[in-house]
Amino acid sequence: MMLTLMPGYACADDLLDRPLFKPDRRASQNSSSAVPAEEMILTGIVSSRNWLQAVFQIPGAKTSKAIGTGGMIEGWKVTSITPAAVNLERGSEKIRLTPRFRAPKSPPQ
């Protein structure tokens, strides 16, 4: 999924840090331990004119996190982002993630 931010937003975090359905519009502060990259879900890639950010969902976290190239997430360094994939590195480990989408839940019958 590619999103293009409207002018005036510095990054996707500006949007993700303001949950729509929380009265105070503030994200909860989660302290998390290192997560294997295979368990992280790359939910999208956000683009602007001259940068890209990867949006991750961490298992157990209630909010998503947007990270740019060179940023760290759960002990992994984001080494590069393209419109189709994100490359992560931790020590000698390297992994390439592509966006994964979950099927919508079926309505109760």
What keywords describe this structure?
about 110 residues, mainly beta, globular
Give the helix/strand layout:
Elements: E1 2-4, H1 12-16, E2 41-47, E3 52-57, E4 64-68, E5 72-73, E6 76-81, E7 86-90, E8 93-97
Give a description of the structure:
The protein contains 1 helix and 8 strands, in the order E-H-E-E-E-E-E-E-E. By secondary structure, the protein is mainly beta. The longest helix has 5 residues, at 12-16. The model has no long low-confidence stretch (mean pLDDT 76).
> What is the CA-based Rg, rounded?
15 Å
Structural class: mainly beta
Tell me the number of strands. Answer: 8
Main β-sheet, spatial strand arrangement: 1-2-3-4
What portion of the residues fall into strands of 2 or more residues?
35-45%
**Multimeric status of the protein:** single chain
Mean pLDDT, rounded to whole units? 76
Question: Into which percent range does the helicity of residues fall?
Answer: under 10%
H/E series: EHEEEEEEE
* End-to-end Cα distance: 30 Å
Number of helices: 1
Biggest sheet overview: 4 strands, mixed
List low-pLDDT spans.
Answer: none
Rough outline: globular
